[in-house]
Amino acid sequence: MSPSRKIDIAARLSRQWLASWSVGVENGEMSELTIWTYDWVPQGPRGFVRDLRLRWACEEAGLAYSVRTVPFEGRETNHLSRQPFGQLPFLDDGALHIFESGAGLLHLARKDEKLMPRDPEGEAETVQWMMAALNSIEMVTVPWWFLEISGAADNGLAGWVGNRLSQLEKVLAEREWLAADRFTAADLLMADVLRVSKLRSFGNRPATDHYVARVTGRPAFQKAHADQLAHFAAGDESRRAAGQSSVREAGDLTRRQSDVRP
Length: 262
Prior knowledge:
- By secondary structure, this protein is α+β, with helices and mostly antiparallel strands.
- It has helices at 3-18, 51-61, 101-109, 120-150, 158-172, 185-194, 197-200, 206-216, 219-241, 253-260, and strands at 20-23, 33-38, 65-70, 90-93, 96-99.
- The chain has a five-stranded mixed sheet.
- Helix 2 links the parallel strand 2 and strand 3.
């Protein structure tokens, strides 16, 4: 590729960084809530990149938001000033800047009672199950999932994962929702952790399967999921227009998928 062509592509990517894609903004006005994600990812992680959690929460609560992007190229270092580990998403709420999807989700939950009750007991229950989703379930399932897709001969984590999922199955067999006897941000987060296909096919856990189907059947999830897919499909078109391949990237597909959903 000629130097001039490389400069042209870099300029296009810089413009993408500055561009804003508005979603659900009422009356034509920009929202103070801005969700940051990649401009493009490979096919594998689409529908699972964690900006979905924030989109979904905004859709549930009826919060207007916009989506802005960080270039996928150079993602390891091109936004370290906003996220010290080089990951996405991060969230802006006016002058407030938050990284980590769990922290962003908790911030959004505090904005609307649809996501988290205002009574102390309901709030505490919601927060504890949000933390359980991240620390007791996802902390175990993500390394297991990564080793599975990497083709490791001896995963070594299957017993730990199976035990945690079985413990959760007992809980879900006795209740419809995790907290406050209704949908909350805890269900949003737990269902997003659990809906990974490899987890769904790992053992027979009917209560968990019904729970995930119920939560992800909500219109807000369906819209957020469709919007994310459309966003990355638009990235395909942008890359084609810029003369970039939608397939060729540095490193193998497994590594690239782990970058966007570690």
